[in-house]
Amino acid sequence: MPVNPNSEQLAAVAAVAGTDADGPLVMLNLNRYRERAAYEAEPPGGGSPDVTGREAYERYGVTALEVLTRSGGEILWHTQATMTVIGDESDRYDEVIAVRYPSAQAFLGLAMDSEIGTALAHRDAGLERAALILCEDGGGVPIGAG
What we know:
Blueprint: H1 7-16, E1 25-33, H2 53-70, E2 74-80, E3 95-101, H3 104-112, H4 114-126, E4 127-136
Antiparallel strand pairs: 1-3, 1-4, 2-3
Helix pairs in contact: 2-4
C-alpha cells in the first residue's frame, strides 16, 4: 500500500508551485498505522525499533512539525477516525490530519527538506497506508457563510 507520493504526483504539485495559481492550501492526511513499526534499519536518532506504528509516526511528527512551522504552515486539526461509513476495508484509516500550507511551494519545501528526509524512516515504518489529498484552503469560512 502506498505511503509516499510518487514522482508523477510530486510533479503535479510542482507544476503549480510558484505560479500565479499557487496559494494557500490544505493537505488532508489520512493515515492507517501498522500494529508494530517496520523499520528497515536502525531508527534515525536512536530509540527502540520495537514500537507501535503510531509511535513511529509520532517520531516523524516531531520533526515534521518543526519544519512545518518554519515553512509558515500549521496543523488545523487532527482526530481519530473511528469508522468507515462508505467504502471498504481499503478505506479504513486511524487518523485524519488537516495541515495548512501557505503555498504548494511551501509544501514542496517541506517534502524536500533534509530533516524530513531523515525522519521519513519513522513515517515509513509507522504507516501501513496513507492518502494525501490537496484541498483548497477555503479561508476558514464556514459552509453557507461565504
